[in-house]
Amino acid sequence: MNRTTLSPVFLTLVLTGCSSVSNPQTQSAEAQLRASTVISNPAKELVGRGTFTNNAGESVTLSFVVTGCPAGEHGLHIHAGTSCGSDGSEALDHWDPLGAGVHGQVGEAAPHHAGDVGVLSCGEDGSGSLTITTDEWTLAVGESSNPIGQAMILHGLDAKQRIGCGVIAANGTIDLVATTLTQNPAADISGTARFVEAPTGEVTVDVELAGCPEGSHGLHIHAGTSCGPDGQEAQGHWDPHEVGEHGQVGESAPHHAGDVGVVECGADGNGSLSLTTDEWVLSDGDSELNPVGQAVIVHGIDPANRVACGVIEGS
């Protein structure tokens, strides 16, 4: 397989039909995969509200509620720093006034940052809550274990994303709002895809990824002729037959023609996918099943993230 190195900007697919010397009916195409430069926040409607309450100087209770939150588990942490920025990156690492230097959980015996609040679970309705009481914090003025003035971050389904941020106010309240953009959690992703149409008309695609976060990544053809820096200019899954159902190319159940499949990336950052189908055509430029001109998206650990995108270009 030919290999093409990706650079983190966007995903450009160059499809070049070429006739084989031994079989003029064989067509091939190669995809060069590049990362999106930024990611739009998948939780644009996120709103959170919390209160730190002093319990007679013996402990502090944090009560926090959130709405507009993607269903699943989200890390909630106090970070060092007094501001957020549009993507939450102005907040520094986890607040660690005692210098523990270890991730963990407030209240546990094992060493941990004082800012390791916990995990907040959001339901399908987008709401979630967390309450924690600890003697590791104080609201006494001038004490190093006082969280007032520090930033609080709510992480996404992909823990590398900071989807919400706010600064703890002097009265012990925290108003957390959605960040505008987040950094691409797969900024180092790179790889190649090779499409070959056999004389029988079947098309095989072989995909290899490197620098890919460990886990499952959807790989789909989307309608649209452009990506934008975050892949959001591409529309929904390519669906020339107007099936209107998500599924898997090659399965008998209804599905979009663009539902390519899932790439599993390992701990080493590598992943691969191979698929053969008669649902696409490369040799007929007028066929509605020819994907040239559409966009290809690689999704992140959070499927809402379009970590790479590019438009398929024919000769």
State the helix count. 0
Terminal Cα span: 20 Å
User: What's the pLDDT, averaged over the residues?
Assistant: 88
Taken in chain order, the helices and strands follow as EEEEEEEEEEEEEEEEEEE
Assembly classification: single chain
Question: What order do the strands of the largest sheet run in, or round the barrel if closed?
Answer: 1-2-13-14-17-16-15-18-19
CATH architecture of the largest domain: Sandwich
Largest sheet, in brief, is: 9 strands, mixed, barrel
CATH class of the largest domain: Mainly Beta
Strand content: 35-45%
Count the strands? 19
Low-confidence stretches: 1-23
Given helix and strand content, the structural type is mainly beta
Shape: elongated
Number of domains: 2
Describe this structure in words.
The chain has 315 residues and is an all-beta fold. It has two domains: 12-38 and 184-313, Sandwich (Immunoglobulin-like), CATH 2.60.40; 47-182, Immunoglobulin-like, CATH 2.60.40.200. Helix content is 0%, strand content 37%. The protein has no helices and 19 strands. The protein has strands spanning 12-14, 27-33, 39-40, 47-55, 59-67, 72-79, 118-122, 128-134, 151-155, 162-167, 173-178, 181-182, 190-197, 203-210, 215-222, 261-265, 271-277, 295-299, 306-313. The strands form three sheets. It has a nine-stranded mixed beta barrel. Strand 9 and strand 10 form a beta hairpin. The radius of gyration is 24 Å and the shape is elongated. The model is unreliable at 1-23 (pLDDT under 50).
